[in-house]
Automatic annotation (TrEMBL):
Location of the Fido domain: 91-239
Positions in coiled-coil regions: none
Pfam family for this entry, one: SoFic-like_C
Protein name per Swiss-Prot or TrEMBL: Fido domain-containing protein
Length: 353
């Protein structure tokens, strides 16, 4: 559970001048990270519907972001719950879904809202809604986030990526929302990337890298607080952004390739039902139900049932009965998203007869 009572914030070091932060080594890291982010932006532009990639990546980011805070659940029931299916009720799943909803809302708000204490308070409320958490008072929050808020407006001459890394540290070290601080800090970092135009979609899977290298993250964070040494932490965060962009780029390209393969398979074996919207929908909703086709304007209920049964018949979806309803699961895509590897096999030709 992310919500815990307030605790005293640790002392924070004085922020050095831009010239001290932007060493030659750090600026080289900025170039590499910016290149990786540009490639990621390009990969995102290959999707006609951004939701085809954004919703799943937001769920994965929320899962690992919460896992860093020791909130853990299995991926299969999480995907089911995210798609509106009933699963065993547990606090971890609810918390991760709150985190995903907060991330998606923050990404939408980043188009018109700059980072501020109000942004942080709104985010904390979304993360801890119904979690029994009492947020800090307005005065307490203003005090805790004074350095962070001031840095948003007084340090605009710093490279945007260095600025994001320093902001992440200042927010995290202030611990304004107890255990919800970490997920909030990671969402604010993604908001910052969207604010500055370094990414267009909330798809950067940053928490995967932070979770895998948590020891290095914690040590470099502590070094700033204990010794005022910024370069190891900046190096770590820039590497995390670069490697996350590279990983996400590969996964986006694999998703795009799978969508194209799926479209070709439908055109070959069920051409009468093909539409680009149908091919992408089963990636947006990998646990597809009849009403999903209706809401998307693809087909009315009776026709939608026929379409989904045909997709199952040609080997794209697996049909399952849940209570009185039926769901159609896109297991090939779920398997792709659950692994680091980006390879996948073609759908088998449908059996005749």
């Amino acid at each position: 559970m992310l919500a815990t009572p307030e605790s005293a914030s640790p002392p924070r070091p004085v922020i050095p001048q831009a010239v001290e932060l932007e060493t030659r080594s750090i600026l080289k890291k900025c170039v590499a990270a910016r290149t990786a982010l540009a490639d990621l932006r390009y990969a995102g532009k290959t999707f006609s519907d951004p939701a085809a990639c954004a919703s799943t990546f937001a769920l994965l980011e929320a899962k690992d972001s919460c896992q860093i805070a020791n909130v853990v659940t299995a991926i299969d029931p999480l995907f089911k719950a995210a798609n509106g299916l009933r699963v065993k009720d547990d606090d971890a799943t609810r918390q991760i879904l709150r985190c995903r909803a907060a991330l998606i809302a923050a990404a939408a708000a980043s188009k018109y809202q700059r980072l501020s204490i109000v942004t942080a308070a709104t985010l904390a409320h979304a993360l801890t809604l119904e979690a029994g958490f009492t947020p800090p008072s307005e005065n307490r929050l203003t005090h805790l986030l004074a350095d962070w808020a001031r840095f948003q407006t007084e340090s605009e001459d710093i490279d945007p990526l260095v600025h994001l890394a320093v902001s992440h540290y200042l927010f995290t070290s202030a611990q304004p929302f107890a255990l919800a601080t970490g997920p909030a800090a990671r969402i604010l970092t993604l908001m910052g990337l969207l604010n500055t135009g370094l990414i267009d979609l909330p798809v950067l899977y940053l928490s995967r890298h932070l979770l895998a290298t948590k020891g290095s993250y914690d040590r470099s964070l502590a070094k700033v607080t204990e010794t005022g040494e910024w370069e190891p932490f900046l190096d770590y965060m820039l590497t995390a952004i670069e490697q996350s962009a590279i990983w996400t780029n590969g996964k986006l390209r694999a998703t795009r390739a799978m969508i194209d393969m799926t479209a070709d398979h439908i055109k070959t074996y069920a051409p009468k039902i093909y539409s680009p919207e149908l091919a992408e929908l089963i990636f947006i909703e990998p646990y597809t139900r009849i009403q999903h086709l209706g809401r998307s304007g693809i087909a009315k209920r009776q026709t939608a049932a026929v379409y989904l049964k045909q997709l199952a018949a040609i080997g794209i979806l697996k049909e399952h009965k849940v209570g009185r309803s039926k769901i159609f699961i896109h297991r090939k895509y779920l398997y792709l998203m659950a692994r680091d590897e980006n390879t996948f096999t073609p759908y088998p030709p449908p059996t005749l007869g």
